[in-house]
Design brief:
By secondary structure, this protein is an all-alpha fold. It is built from 16 helices and two strands. The radius of gyration is 30 Å and the shape is elongated.
């Protein structure tokens, strides 16, 4: 059976379809449980399949935040610096001039100097005015206009809590205007400048929602990364899936201990696994199982890591590291999870046995390779390894028989050019 060109057994196909719930299952209208903090788009347990033929914009299932304080919960938009906030009134940070500096010629520096010269430099009162106008437009759900006001507020009072809030609200407005590309870019600008932003918990929810939507759109209608998109504002101009991966990475990187970090890593692994890019997939599954041992995806991550490493292994005459890693994780999963594996336990035991057979076959192939080169010492080394590591297997009997047949053979082939090398003793021919 195959899925997207992927060669896998029926049990693995079922596993991939199940774990794809965190990244490849369309959001079904009316089938999401919304929480007060807007976590609806995470889909709850990402391993639960929620298939639906339609893909719906992520903003359609995200509750619109309120700017009002709740008596039971924190404000949905989180804290916005007010006029009386002590930090909000601080002046933008200014560096003392020490004469000419090459940074003075940087385009952004030249642009800022030009703005200041034309009267468009930092202005706290004007920034606060733009922010208030943006909040008023936001309450009226005029998101595009509000985003422009928040953008102006951010540019007029940089390096301040007001700018941090304005950037966040700009991204929020673009999100609910379903301009996800610009919203994602603005969230990126916010986290680049304020990597420990007070809005981080909301940013990762939005970023995961955008990533999941783009992931689903690509799943439903895949395009080449270089195919441009100029018509649909819900998608980026280029490389929908690549941008989805970047948004997932934002969640995993900026909030590594948060509730969505494991979902993001699982989703990233699945996007690569389905494309037969098993090495990258294995890296993300490995990160998930090591960094989030209590994740509900941890068993799936172990199983898919094993399968990915098996697919990376190229054959008996190539590097055995992927196969060894698969065998080690298979043994660990059986020991660590035991009965939790359910029906998959017997299948995992079979996989572990298959890996042992593959490793034995690799040693046999290496022994035969050296035999053909008449490097009998090296061949005997691999036959001894087979007898030591796999004593109960049939291949051990074959190795023992072959050892007896080449027992008296020289370790290395005779030097047929000895008469030439004798002419240049002690390397004098170099």
């Amino acid at each position: 059976m195959a899925i997207h060109g992927l060669r896998c057994s029926p049990w693995l196909l079922g596993l991939v379809m199940a774990v794809s719930g965190c990244q490849g299952v369309p959001l079904a209208p009316g089938n999401t449980s919304t929480s007060p903090d807007g976590a609806a788009a995470t889909g709850g347990n990402a391993s639960a399949p929620l298939f639906d033929p339609a893909v719906r914009q992520t903003s359609a299932v995200q509750p619109l935040p309120s700017l009002e304080e709740s008596s039971k919960t924190k404000p949905a938009v989180v804290y916005l610096a007010g006029d009386d906030d002590e930090e909000e009134t601080r002046e933008p940070v200014k560096k003392e001039s020490s004469g000419f500096d090459w940074e003075d010629l940087a385009p952004e520096k030249v642009f800022k100097d030009m703005q200041a010269a034309l009267g468009y430099g930092p202005n706290k009162e004007l920034a606060k005015q733009y922010r208030q106008e943006g909040l008023d437009l936001y309450k009226q759900k005029r998101f595009k206009e509000a985003a422009a006001k928040f953008s102006a507020a951010a540019s007029r009072w940089p390096d301040s809590p007001l700018e941090e809030d304005a950037l966040f609200m700009k991204a929020e407005c673009l999100f609910f205007a379903e301009d996800y590309g610009k919203s994602h870019d603005t969230f990126g600008t916010l986290l680049k400048k304020y990597d420990n932003s007070r809005h981080l918990d909301k940013v990762v929810i939005r970023e995961f929602s955008i990533a999941r939507y783009w992931d689903q759109v690509h799943e439903q209608s895949p395009h080449w990364p270089v195919t441009p998109n100029f018509m649909d504002s819900t998608r980026p101009v280029f490389d929908t899936l690549g941008n989805a991966r970047k948004a997932y990475e934002t969640v995993a990187l900026h909030d590594p201990t948060g509730p969505l970090a494991d979902d993001a890593l699982m989703a990233l692994g699945n996007t690569y696994f389905i494309q037969d890019r098993y090495s990258e997939a294995a890296d993300y599954y490995d990160r998930l199982r090591k960094e989030h041992p209590n994740s509900p995806h941890v068993i799936d991550a172990h199983l898919l890591f094993i399968k990915s490493k098996q697919m990376v292994y190229q054959g008996p005459l190539y590097d055995a590291t992927p196969l060894k890693e698969a065998g080690e994780v298979a043994e660990l999963a059986l020991r660590q999870f035991g009965s939790e594996l359910g029906d998959q336990r017997d299948k995992l035991i079979k996989i572990e046995n298959d890996i042992r057979v593959e490793m034995a076959n690799r040693d046999w192939a290496m022994a035969k390779f050296y035999e053909r080169k008449r490097q009998y010492g090296a061949a005997r080394y691999y036959y001894r390894q087979i007898m030591k590591d796999y004593p109960q297997e049939k291949i051990a009997d074959a190795a023992r028989q072959r050892m007896s047949e080449i027992e008296d053979y020289p370790d290395t082939p005779p030097d047929r050019f000895k008469f030439l090398t004798a002419l240049f003793p002690d390397g004098q021919g170099d």
